[in-house]
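User: My collaborator sent over this chain with a note saying "see what the structure looks like." That's all I know about it. Can you take a look?
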Amino acid sequence: MKKSIVILTGGGPAPGMNTVVGSIAKTFISNGYRVLGLHGGYKGLFSKEPNYTELDFLMADSIFNRGGSYLIMSRYKPSPIDYEQNFNLNFFIENNIQLLVTIGGDDTASTANKVAKFLSDHNHNISNIHVPKTIDNDLPLPLARPTFGYESAKSEGARIATTVYEDARTSNNWFVVCAMGRSAGHLAFGIGSAAHYPMIVIPEMFNKTTITVDKIVKIAVSSIVKRLLLNINYGAVMISEGVFHELSDDELNKSGVVFSYDEHGHPELGKVSKAHIFSEMVETRLREIGVKTKIRPVELGYELRCQSPSAYDLVYCTELGIGLHQLFVEGKTGCMVYIDHLGKVEPLYLKDIQDPVTGKIPPRGVNLESDRVQAIINNIMHYITKEDYEAARKFISNPEEYDFRKILNW
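Assistant: Without extra context I'll predict from the sequence alone. Here is the result:
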């Protein structure tokens, strides 16, 4: 029987999903393999009748430069009972599957290892290789290599953010823009830097103090007042949604929003507009101190996930797809495909980046000490400093409380 591989996608979409799938398919087809694309993520492996498509060259060629994911994605996570009662072993045997390819986050990768072990225990050995993706760019890849999808999301986010900034300049008002990034501020900082936003707020900035609603609001007001001192009546504040995820329950309650909670007890922040919440808070504070400025909210989230990949990710994801085949030929398994800046393909194992105690992969945050980040903070962003106190009293009675570096305890 002809040898096969199966590809599945887990989690949420990122630009370049189809590029990876199309590149893998083209490469393996040219080497004599059948390529099966599984719909529904892991759910298909625990179903009596998996929903899959056999990918041929024409299909791969038609999707490789498209946004979204041709293979339907899922966050399905199989339970121990699923392995005992629902695992479709025949799917692997009947199709002579030699390799399981997974595209997703660390949960998707961990489950792939469990699936491979289950198959091995049932006398059907396969290789499994993972392709890590996230627009958040928070996976700690060596040499600060970005995760695929990030550059495309940043590019589209910068396009939208620049348009918003032009609206602020045209209308002489302010916007609060919130960008995706649960654990790290890479996307918000990248977009805000590209669009020259006068204020960017990311969770990494609170490395010496606790994140509170009041501090976030004060940082935004600091930028608005500083610009008034410069006779500039417009601007935009970029906030990473990650600061919201770091707020305590008490601080979340202060936001005035009633949240629904997921099965793990976490507030479902994706259902609410963080930009709207923050803009209301900032506008309320401005009214209290007597500064007349209009604030408008813009949420940057789902708009960034399914766009067409940029040239950067088209090339990067093509290399990842071909590199995955190279690792398979070399006999590598239970690993992620990693490609350095020089194009060298290497296996990256979960154990090498996991916390040895918790087993979790610690998120890669924005390096505040880097010259690149400090250049933006010190030269592009606007905020109140000690030198502004006297002049700022024209607008606020207590400017020292709105001193950017004091708020952050820097």
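A starting point for your reply to your collaborator: The first helix runs from residue 17 to 30.
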